[in-house]
C-alpha cells in the first residue's frame, strides 16, 4: 500500500502538504506546478487507482486562433475544438477557452498547460511571453514555436506526395494545384501554405510541375474556390490539366461549382483530389475524393502529449505527424 510518506519523499514536499492535497483540503493553497508534481508522483506510485478523479483533474487553457469567416471554412477547426472539449472532459481536464493570446498570457499562471488550435499567425515575441508564464503547451495543426512547445499536425507533405503518386500511376502527367494563402510557421514564418509548399517541392522532383497549372490565392473558402475555378477556366482557355490537387474541401466545392456551371465534367474532363473530408464533401456532385484527417486522433495525441509534458516537464519537445487516408469517391 502506498503511503503519504512515500509520496512526500518522491515528490520532495512535506507529508503534511501531500496529505492535505490528496485529501482535497479546501484551505490548502499551492501552485499548479506543486499540485501537479504531487499528483503525478502519487499516480505513478499507484495512489491514483483509488483517487482517479482527483489525479486527472488539470486546469488547461484552450487557445483558439481562428476566425469565423464562413461556415464551411470553420468546420475543420470547430470540429477540432468540439473534439478537444469532449476528449478533455473524458480525461478530467478542466478546459477554459481563450480567443486572444494576450489574455492567455495575462492569466497563464492559473493553468498547468494549454492546447492551441487555429491557423492564424502568432507573434514570436508573444509566444516567448507565453512560454514564461505557461511553459507546457501543445499546438494542434500548426507548429509556430517548435523550440518552446509540442505540436501535432496532419502529415500534409506525405498527403500531397501520395496524391501525386496516385495520379501518376493513373497515367496523369499534367497535374495542377489549387490552394489558398497561408504560412509555414516556426522560428521563421514563411509566407506559403504547407500544402502548396509540398506540392511545388514534390511535383518538381517528380517532373510534373507546371507554373501555369499552379493557382494559389485568397482564403480557404468555398467562395474563393468558386472564383479560382472561374479564373482557371478564363486563364487556361480550355487547356486544362488532367487533374488538380486541391488544398481543402471548401475550396474544392467552390471549384466544382465553377466547373459544373461551365460544363466541365469531373472526372471525365478533369480529376479532383482534395483534403479534409468534411461532411458535405460526400454530398456534392460528384462526391469528392478526399483525404480524411482523423481529428479524433489529432486531439487525443495532443492530450497525450500534454499529459506527458505535465509528468515530464523537462523533456525535449515532441512534434508528431498523423497520417491521412484517402476516401475514394467519384471526383477521381
Describe this structure in words.
With 332 residues, the protein is of the alpha/beta class. The protein has 3 domains: 4-55, 434 Repressor (Amino-terminal Domain); 58-154 and 295-326, Rossmann fold; 156-292, Response regulator (Rossmann fold), CATH 3.40.50. 42% of the residues lie in helices and 17% in strands. The chain has a 6-stranded parallel β-sheet. Helix 1 packs across helix 3 (32-44), helix 5 crosses helix 12 (295-311) and helix 6 packs parallel to helix 7. It is elongated and about 80 Å long. The model is unreliable at 49-55 (pLDDT under 50). InterPro entries: HTH_LacI (IPR000843), LacI/GalR-like_sensor (IPR046335), Lambda_DNA-bd_dom_sf (IPR010982), Peripla_BP_I (IPR028082). It holds the Pfam family LacI. Keywords: DNA-binding, Transcription, Transcription regulation. This is LacI-type transcriptional regulator.
Tell me the layout of helices and strands:
Blueprint: H1 4-11, H2 15-22, H3 32-44, H4 52-55, E1 58-64, H5 71-90, E2 93-98, H6 101-107, E3 113-117, H7 124-133, E4 137-140, E5 150-154, H8 156-169, E6 175-179, H9 194-205, E7 214-216, H10 222-236, E8 243-246, H11 249-261, E9 271-276, E10 289-292, H12 295-311, E11 319-322, E12 325-327
Parallel strand pairs: 1-2, 1-3, 3-4, 4-5, 5-11, 6-7, 6-8, 8-9, 9-10
Antiparallel strand pairs: 10-12
Helix pairs in contact: 1-2, 1-3, 5-12, 6-7, 8-9, 10-11
